[in-house]
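User: Teach me something about this protein's shape.
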Amino acid sequence: MSDLELRQFHSFLEDLIDESFRTGRFSADKIVLRVVTEYPERLDNIRMHLNDLGLRALIRNNCRAKNRTSSVEPDMFGHYGLGKRVAVPYVDDHGKNRWDRKPRGELSFDDLDRIRERRDERPARASRDQKELEDIAKRAEPYRSLTESISQALAMAERDGR
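Assistant: First, the predicted structure itself:
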């Protein structure tokens, strides 16, 4: 599959998503059903890419999941918010810092020390989305009583040079 085909499919999905907002509440399930039933040929064109994306998503979700589905042993981590696999730092053969996923039941004290050390080295910072939402809120706040739409409030702020 070419990058062009993938971009075209993304644009197609974007149009369906926009349409779903205009006709009611957003529902990923409804969009999936619509694509599967009304546009099966489009799915066939990107099936290999969808398989890869789907498998990656399932693997990531499994790593983040809190509880094992197949274990009969009591879960000693059950009341903690850790996923089944924890990111543990290591230095690769080229001296570059990397993170590896390790089953939480196999964490060593050295692993825990390395995790804590790496996290202590980096200052806590808000995510980019959080920062952007805060900026949007600050710019839009003066226009709250004038409109209910954030995009309209941002347009007013832009107009007023804010």
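Now, about its shape. The chain has three domains: 3-64, 67-124, 128-159. The helical segments are 3-22, 28-38, 40-64, 109-121, 128-140, 150-159. If you'd like, I can walk through any region in more detail.
User: That's plenty for now, thanks!
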